[in-house]
Amino acid sequence: MSTTAPTPRASVPRTLDVSGTPKVPFTRTVSVELRKMLDTRAGFWLLAVSGLLLVVVAGIVMAVVLANDIGITANGWVQVMTVPLSLLLPIFAITSVTAEWSQRTGLVSFTLEPHRLKIIGAKLVAVVILVVATMALAVALGAVANLLYGAFSGNDVVWNVDGSAFFWTVVNQLLYFLMAFGLAMLILSTPASIAVYYVVSLLLPFMVYSAVYVLVSWGPDVLPWVDLGYAMAPLVGGGPTGPGGPGLEVTGTTYAQVAVATLIWVVLPMVLGGRRVMRTEIK
Amino acid sequence: MITVENLTKSYGGFTAVDDVSFTAEAGRVTGFLGPNGAGKTTTMRVMTGLTPPTRGSVTIGGHLYRDLPNPGRHVGVLLDASAQHAGRTGREVLTLGARTMGLPASRVDEMLALVSLDERESKRRIKNYSLGMRQRLGIAHALLGDPSVLILDEPANGLDPAGIRWMRGLLKSYADRGGAVLLSSHLLHEVEQIADEMILIGRGRIVARGTKAELLAVQGDGSTLVQAVDNDLLAKALVAAGHEVTAAGAGLSVSTQPAVVGQVALEAQVALVDLRATEGRGLEDLFLELTADTQREAPAGAPSAQPATPAHAAPQGGPR
User: Fold this and answer.
1) B117 falls in which pLDDT band (50, 70, 90)?
2) Whether residue B158 sits in one domain with residue B66
3) Measured between CB atoms, does A275 come within 8 Å of chain B?
4) What's CA B238's distance to the chain center, in Å?
5) How many Å apart are CA A265 and CA A174, to the nearest integer?
6) How far A87 CA sits from the closest chain B CA (Å)?
7) Relative to the CA of A210, which of A267, A276, B184, B286 has its CA 20 to 30 Å away?
């Protein structure tokens, strides 16, 4: 039927003039990704439950501390408030990535922005913003709790937040979120990513490593190299039994251990996962 | 506007799209037809940069998709209406799109009105949307950036008959205003009424292309169906005039044009009840026949003897 080709119409444009269209600025992509993180029902409940956890944990700690007449300082409050934030919020980092596959929204996201690295970068920035914002909230709540503690107990309010320990607490929090993000890119499935993340970040350290650390002779030598929590413990001012335990000394080895654990759990998943996201077909 | 050149996509040993070339022009609706698994969706995914081609290329208005700045402003895409976050509201989905493209929030309301999703529906979560509502939302999303090219994969899926008619009108007027529409479907009747041109694809290859009339012209064998008050008398007259006559239903099938049969009837003074050209086997049959060897199940009653017959009429690979 090539003989019956449609009559060529001179007026029909064959090219698109795109010179007048600016690219989508990165900040806009970030703000959209941030919004996408929070605008679903799951996002709403995650935030609501995390907020509730913060208040409940603060309440319980307050009750225990007052009842037993234990002193608590601002530093203690920051440590306490970080825990609820590290429980559920990493799921945001995971679903931000995996929803594009599990919910198949990637079909839309990656056609509106074909440069996948830009979307991944925007998601990463959105996750960092989430971590910083929630940490700020935790600090504010901690300060309020500290004041209340002073009022209830009659003790002097101690504002002793150690700058270095606080810095490393934020870094620690960030690294765990980035690990969740990297694993999510590597696995690209919401349930599997969440399962793997919690096994690595919570289950293994609490159920297995803690026993190994105490019972096995090589435990204290090996674990800080392979687990982020054990590697970071001296820096955030915690001991092998968690915050509040006997303090560990920070040495040059500590930084090497943090670097190695970060390489294994953050850098490697990020790089391999990033490659996967770049290459995979969006269906 | 959309130019597909020698596009091939293979997965291991399986070739999903095999050396496909065609164009979809501005101001026209191009129908992309084929049975399930024929390669339509793969072709569209390559078009929009979601799938890398094995060979060949697709350009839109002379650009690779990934080179389009803010592509939503130029190309409206709907690949799968169900591919939306179940926990987001319809309005939120459009808001995200509008924000990404840098459009005012009022555009969201315009689009919702255009696809007849009312205020209450737009605030429901997509989990609670029917497939038809998802399609409407998807079409609204595709039109959001006022693009000059539309790529729609099975947009009529799940729409009720009124919805299909509405969509036809929408796409027709969009093309009339100069837009290029590429529309895929596995259902012929959805497409034949609006498509200015049709591309038929089966097992990854283009098996025929052209306007509806062109496709049917290949099929028509120039014979006539006729029914007279006195069929026997007419049959005698036709045989005497040198035509082959066979009984067909309540009438006769004659191996010549209707005008000739009418003339014979006039001369024989037989009153006619019905007189029409044989419609070949219709577009539906053509479609089934062309894609017969690519169907998962051979359609009952479809002539299977020479499924490739029309291929010579629609040469492969000839750039149009």
Assistant:
1) very high
2) yes
3) no
4) 40
5) 12
6) 22
7) A267
Helix A163-187 with A228-236: angle, nearest 10 deg: 160
Strand partners, B55: B8
Comparison of pLDDT for B281 and A113, the residue scoring more: A113
The per-residue DSSP string of B52-83 comes to --SEEEEEETTB-GGGSSSGGGTEEEES-TT-
Q: Give the separation between CA B173 and CA B242, rounded to whole angstroms.
A: 50
Query: The complex's ipTM?
Result: 0.86
Does residue B27 carry a pLDDT above 80?
A: yes
Q: Name the token pair of B305.
A: 């003897």
Query: Angle A268-279/A163-187 helices, nearest 10 degrees?
Result: 40
The better pLDDT of the pair B301, B89 is held by: B89
Q: Is A69 on the interface with B (CB under 8 A)?
A: no
CA distance B101 to B292: 43
Q: Are residues B235 and B187 in the same domain?
A: no
| Lowest-confidence segment of B81-85, B105-109, B138-142, B219-223 by average pLDDT | B219-223
pLDDT exceeds cutoff 50 at A20: yes
Partner-chain residue, chosen from A4, A13, A22, that has the shortest CB–CB distance to B69? A22
C-alpha distances out from residue B112 to A118, B19, B71, B94, B137, Å:
29, 39, 21, 9, 8
Alpha carbon of A133: minimum distance to chain B alpha carbons (Å): 22
CB A32 within 8 A of CB A122: yes
Closest chain B residue to A45, measured at CA: B87
Q: What burial letters (b/e) apply to A73-98, b meaning 16+ CB within 10 Å? A: bbbbbbbbbbebbbbebbbbbbbbbb
- For B27, the closest chain A residue by CA position comes to A12
- Are B160 and B206 within one domain? yes
Q: State which residues form the domain around B65.
A: 2-74+147-216
Cα–Cα distances in Å, from B259 out to A282, B46, B236, B248?
56, 49, 17, 19
**Cβ contacts of A17 within 8 Å, gap of 6 or more:** B61
CATH of the domain at B157: 3.40.50.300
Same domain assignment for residues B152 and B259: no
CA distance B44 to B79: 8
Residues of chain B contacting residue A30, judged by C-beta atoms under 8 Å apart? none
Give the H or E element holding residue A275: helix A268-279
How far, CA to CA in Å, does B95 sit from each of A80, A124, B118?
38, 21, 15
Is B28 close to A22, i.e. CB distance below 8 A?
no
CA angle, A263 then A266 then A272, to 5°:
90
d(CA A122, CA A177): 15
Domain boundaries, chain A: 24-279
Chain B stretch 1-60, residues whose beta carbon is closer than 8 A to a beta carbon of chain A: 1, 25-28, 45, 48-52, 60
Q: How many domains does chain B have?
A: 2
At residue B87, the 3 state secondary structure works out as coil
